[in-house]
Amino acid sequence: MLIGGTILAAGPAAHAAGLLSIIVNDPSNPYWMAEGKIAAAEASKLGYTANVSAHKGDTNVESNLVDTAITNHSVAIILDPANASGSVGAVRKAVAAHIPVFLVNAEINQSGLAKAQLVSNNAQGAAVGAQEWVKRVGDKGHYAELLGSPSDNNAATRSNGYNTVLSQYPDLERVAEQVANWDRTQGHDKMQSMLQAHPDIIGVISGNDDMALGAIAALKEAGKLKTIKVGGFDGSPDAIAAIKSGQLQYTVLQPVATFARKAVDEADSFIRTGKTGAAEEKQLFNCILITEQNVGKYTEPFTISE
Questions:
Q1: N- to C-terminal Cα distance for the chain?
Q2: What pLDDT score does 103 carry?
Q3: What is the DSSP string of 160-228?
Q4: C-alpha angle 166/301/187, rounded to 5°?
Q5: Cα–Cα distance, 204 to 199 (Å, whole number)
Q6: Dihedral (Cα; 121, 126, 127, 129), 10-degree rounding
Q7: In the record, which residues are listed under signal peptide (predicted)?
Q8: Tell me, what's the pLDDT at 16?
């Protein structure tokens, strides 16, 4: 249920276990929307009241939401951090209030504060995506890259992962790169400017699906989509539709459905036993390549059967 910009979910025994505050990035992006909904559903199933709110990448908003979680006596916080360095203070504040924090999707640049950091294996996913991209685009020519938000470590990890693979092909040259901040509209606009400067590019590799879909829209407008191939990253429902229609070459699914549930399960374990049940604070979840060959196995948002 959506109330005043906050998603609330409560199960039959909702108040028995206490309030679980879930703070995501921007629910206008289907990835983060799914992250919040899935975590809230798992919390509800376990008997918690779940409150989902969003900071939209603003560390000041994030800090205020953590203050609210503390004031409301949350038993735990599930947080997708706004900034690898800038979110450390918000996490430290919750810890000082004796509220355990469980990070999902993105890391912070300090270990030992959060009880767990559960993220996609972005390096593995980027390598898988880049290998598929080369198969589709070929091993020579000029290409462009769309990058996510510089404040999110995932953006650099994916870009570096792409470069590790693509640098093995000396006749492939990246002639343009633009930051589009995970956003579809920015992906569209940045693609337009890159295309004007480099009309001979043969492909676009993107740090996420929304930027890739924005690029596809710009390429369609320019009549270039048949000759310029685009690869994505996330496994969003819109990306799946674009693969089925032949507009997107592939996407790399982040298993957000898996680690959003697991973060709540670990929070529940810690609340009950003082232990998360995980061997390490930082936990990586491998990504899955989705192409036209296996797209039919995608039955729920960000979920594919092996």
A1: 31
A2: 98
A3: HHHHHHHTT-TTEEEEEEEE-TT-HHHHHHHHHHHHHH-TT--EEEESSHHHHHHHHHHHHHTT-TTTS
A4: 45
A5: 12
A6: 120
A7: 1-16
A8: 61
How many other C-beta atoms are found inside a 10 Å radius of the C-beta of residue 60?
Answer: 11
> Are the CB atoms for 44 and 269 separated by under 8 Å?
no
Backbone torsions φ then ψ of 40, nearest 5 degrees: -65, -40
The residue to which tokens 């996420």 are assigned = 208
Q: Are 48 and 75 in contact (CB under 8 A)?
A: yes
For residues 54 and 79, the answer to whether their CB atoms sit within 8 Å is: no
Question: Does pLDDT of 221 surpass 50?
Answer: yes
Residue 17's pLDDT band (boundaries 50, 70, 90)?
A: confident
Could you give the 3-state DSSP secondary structure of residue 77? Answer: strand
- β-sheet bridge partners, residue 121: none
Nearest to 150 by CA among 90, 215, 85: 85
The H or E element spanning position 68 is: helix 59-71
Q: Which CATH fold would you assign to the domain 2-118+256-284?
A: Rossmann fold (3.40.50)
Torsion of CA 68, 69, 74, 76, to 10 degrees: -170
Alpha-carbon span 85 to 48, nearest angstrom: 30
Structure tokens at 177: 């790169």
Tokens of 12: 């039959």
Tokens of 229: 């191939």
- Please name the fold of domain 122-253: Rossmann fold (3.40.50)
Tokens of 52: 């989902």
Q: At which residue do the structure tokens 């650099």 appear? A: 156
Percent of the chain at pLDDT > 70 equals 95
CB within 8 A of 289, min separation 6: which ones?
Answer: 128, 129, 132, 250, 252, 253
